[in-house]
Amino acid sequence: MLLRRLEDCDEFIAGDLTRLREILHPDKLGIDIHYSLAHATLPPGRASQPHYLYSSEVYYILSGKGIMHINSQNEQVEEGSTIFIPPKSIQYIENTGSQDLVFLCIVDPAWKKEDEIVL
Q1: Mean pLDDT by 10-residue block, N- to C-terminus, for the chain (119 residues)?
Q2: The CATH number of the domain covering residues in 21-118
Q3: Strand pairing of 91-95 and 101-108?
Q4: Which pTM does this prediction carry?
């Protein structure tokens, strides 16, 4: 069994300017999975930097509200929203609420720095 607690995962500022904690990554934990899982936080009034990945991505909103931008589409998101982001889609998310926007990011195949292009 592998058990990870969020508070035990180092926080860092990602290339898109969200605060991230990597929970699961096959390269860092030596586990046999093909995806990575991260916990992201974006303060009120802020937006992540437009970027795209060569991998697909899923966001699951844990708390807060905002607007998800994928290519030319924009949708309101809130707690309980799940967003699929196809590979090579220009994307960013903005926090339109008064509290942190908190979400999980699943990247498949697992996130690699060289697979993310920040615009």
Answers
A1: 95 94 95 97 97 97 98 98 98 98 98 93
A2: 2.60.120.10
A3: unpaired
A4: 0.95
